[in-house]
Specification:
mainly alpha; about 120 residues; single chain; three-stranded antiparallel sheet; elongated; Arc Repressor Mutant, subunit A
């Protein structure tokens, strides 16, 4: 069985929702207050706060109180755990596909050449 990483589970769970991905994409441009992140979603503030809580719980964002507003910052270093796992999986599957392709090539008939053609 593959090793189980709860942190990786939280990251992929957080990224599974398009609203959270959109929020994270916006935070990739720089810090933003919750009200700015909520505006394009059309969701109620408590729902937005739940989404932000999932992102923060996964370590993808950090929040801080700034006066009366809550400011959110992306934590892109957390994504390295997911990108490392994806790169490992890609390498594994590319190796398997290369071996499969080599095997299929052994099953393919060889094209005839003048040296191997039977003369009538």
């Amino acid at each position: 069985m593959a090793k189980h990483d709860p942190a990786l589970d939280l990251i992929f769970q957080a990224l599974s929702d398009p609203t959270r991905r959109a929020m994270l994409a916006r935070l990739g441009q720089g810090a933003a207050p919750v009200s700015e992140l909520a505006r394009p979603t059309g969701l109620a503030l408590p729902t937005v706060m739940k989404h932000l809580g999932v992102l923060e719980g996964a370590g993808l964002i950090a929040t801080e109180k700034s006066g009366r507003a809550r400011l959110c910052h992306a934590r892109p270093e957390t994504l390295s755990l997911a990108t490392d796992w994806l790169a490992e999986q890609r390498s594994l599957w590319e190796g398997r596909l290369d071996r499969f392709e080599a095997y299929v090539q052994t099953l393919m008939p060889k094209p005839s050449t003048p040296e191997t053609r039977d003369e009538w």
